[in-house]
Amino acid sequence: MQDFLGAQVGGVPVDQILIALGTAVVATFGLRFAFGLALRRFRTLARRTENDIDDLVVELLEKTRLLFIGLIALWAAARPLDLPAEAETVLRGVLVIGLHLQAGFWGMGVINYLITRWKRQQLEEDPGVATAVGVVGFMSRMGLWAVLGLTALGTLGVEVSPFVASLGIGGVAVALALQNVLGDLFASMSIVFDKPFVIGDFVSVDDLSGTVEYVGLKTTRVRSLSGEQLVFSNSDLLGSRVRNYGRMRERRVAFAIGVTYGTPAAVLRAIPGYVREAVEALDNTRFDRSHLKGFGDSSIDFETVYYMSVPDYTAFMDTQEQINLALYERFEDEGIDFAFPTRTVHVVGSGADGEVGVAVSEGSPTSADASPPGADASPPGE
C-alpha cells in the first residue's frame, strides 16, 4: 500500500491525486446540499410573495446541474497539484465545456421566465401573442446555444472564423434542401407580425372552416365544426384566401319569404312594414331594407336585409328564429298565406268523340284558376 501511495501518475503522487478526488467528492455533495437548502427556502419564499423575481431564482437553482457543481469542486481541488500541461489542458477544456453547458441551462431558465411573464401579461389582451411566444422562444433558444457554442470553441483556442464561413456555405445548402420547411417557418413569422388571424378566430379556407387552435412553426391547426382537427401548412395557408369571421364587426343577414298569388295589392304593400316591425323589435339588430323582389313560379317573393351587431353565429340563429316566428304569427293574424310549390289541374271538358282534355299548370292557385261550370275541379295543391 505504501508503495502504491508513493507511486506517481504523470509526475503527481497517487496520494495527492486521491486527496484531491476525495476533496472534490466531499465538496460536491456539500455544495449540492447547500443548493438544495437554498432552493427549499426560495420555494417557500416564492409561495408567500407576489414578486416573481424569486420565481426566477428558484428556476435557476433548479437548473443548476450536479455535474457543474462537481466540475467546480474538481477544479478547485486540483489547483494545488502540479499537473502536467496535458492534464491541465484537458481539465481546463472539460471545465470550459461544463461552464458553457450550465450557462445554457441558466439562459434557458431566463428565457422561459421572460416568455412566461410576457405570455401571462399579454395573452388576455391579445390571443395572437401565443403564436409570437412560440416563435420568439424558438429563435431565442437557438441563438443562445449558437452563441455559447461559438464562445466555447473560441475559449478552447479553436479558430472560429473559418468555422463560421463554412457554416454560411453549409447554411445555403441546408436552406435549399429545406426550403419548404423554411418557407413554413417564415410564414409563421409573417402570421405572428401581420396577424391575419389569432388563436380563437373562426376562419374559412376554401371549403374548410373551423376555430384556430394552434399556430406553430410549420403548421396551423384548426378545429372544424364537425370535431376533427384540420392541419394546414403555414405557407399554403397564407397563399389561400382566408375568411376570418373572428374580425367580423357585424353580420349581414339576407332572407327571403314568398306569399301566394292572389294576395291583395294592399297587403303586399304592408308586408315590408310587418317585416320591419319584427326585426326592429329585437335587440342587436339594425334593419336595412325589405322589398317585393319579384314574381316567382309559385310565389310573390320578398327579400329582407338586416344587420346583427353581434357577430356570434348562435346569436344570429336565435334572432332569425324569433323573426320567423313573429312573421308566422303576424301572417296568421292577417290571413296571409305563405307560398309553396303547387300544381293546378284544369279539366277542359269532353268533346264530341268523348275524350277529355286536361291542361296542367305549375304555380300557386289564384282566383283565375276556377274550373268551368259543371266540371269536377281537383282541390288546390294536388
From TrEMBL:
<feature type="transmembrane region" description="Helical">
    <location>
        <begin position="127"/>
        <end position="148"/>
    </location>
</feature>
<dbReference type="InterPro" id="IPR049142">
    <property type="entry name" value="MS_channel_1st"/>
</dbReference>
<feature type="region of interest" description="Disordered">
    <location>
        <begin position="358"/>
        <end position="382"/>
    </location>
</feature>
<feature type="domain" description="Mechanosensitive ion channel MscS">
    <location>
        <begin position="180"/>
        <end position="246"/>
    </location>
</feature>
<dbReference type="InterPro" id="IPR023408">
    <property type="entry name" value="MscS_beta-dom_sf"/>
</dbReference>
<dbReference type="InterPro" id="IPR011066">
    <property type="entry name" value="MscS_channel_C_sf"/>
</dbReference>
<feature type="compositionally biased region" description="Low complexity">
    <location>
        <begin position="363"/>
        <end position="382"/>
    </location>
</feature>
<keyword id="KW-1133">Transmembrane helix</keyword>
<keyword id="KW-0472">Membrane</keyword>
<dbReference type="Pfam" id="PF00924">
    <property type="entry name" value="MS_channel_2nd"/>
</dbReference>
<protein>
    <submittedName>
        <fullName>Mechanosensitive ion channel family protein</fullName>
    </submittedName>
</protein>
<dbReference type="InterPro" id="IPR010920">
    <property type="entry name" value="LSM_dom_sf"/>
</dbReference>
<dbReference type="Pfam" id="PF21088">
    <property type="entry name" value="MS_channel_1st"/>
</dbReference>
<feature type="domain" description="Mechanosensitive ion channel transmembrane helices 2/3">
    <location>
        <begin position="141"/>
        <end position="179"/>
    </location>
</feature>
<feature type="domain" description="Mechanosensitive ion channel MscS C-terminal">
    <location>
        <begin position="254"/>
        <end position="338"/>
    </location>
</feature>
<feature type="transmembrane region" description="Helical">
    <location>
        <begin position="160"/>
        <end position="182"/>
    </location>
</feature>
<dbReference type="InterPro" id="IPR006685">
    <property type="entry name" value="MscS_channel_2nd"/>
</dbReference>
<feature type="transmembrane region" description="Helical">
    <location>
        <begin position="90"/>
        <end position="115"/>
    </location>
</feature>
<comment type="similarity">
    <text>Belongs to the MscS (TC 1.A.23) family.</text>
</comment>
<dbReference type="Pfam" id="PF21082">
    <property type="entry name" value="MS_channel_3rd"/>
</dbReference>
<feature type="transmembrane region" description="Helical">
    <location>
        <begin position="60"/>
        <end position="78"/>
    </location>
</feature>
<keyword id="KW-1003">Cell membrane</keyword>
<keyword id="KW-0812">Transmembrane</keyword>
<dbReference type="InterPro" id="IPR049278">
    <property type="entry name" value="MS_channel_C"/>
</dbReference>
<feature type="transmembrane region" description="Helical">
    <location>
        <begin position="17"/>
        <end position="39"/>
    </location>
</feature>
<dbReference type="InterPro" id="IPR011014">
    <property type="entry name" value="MscS_channel_TM-2"/>
</dbReference>
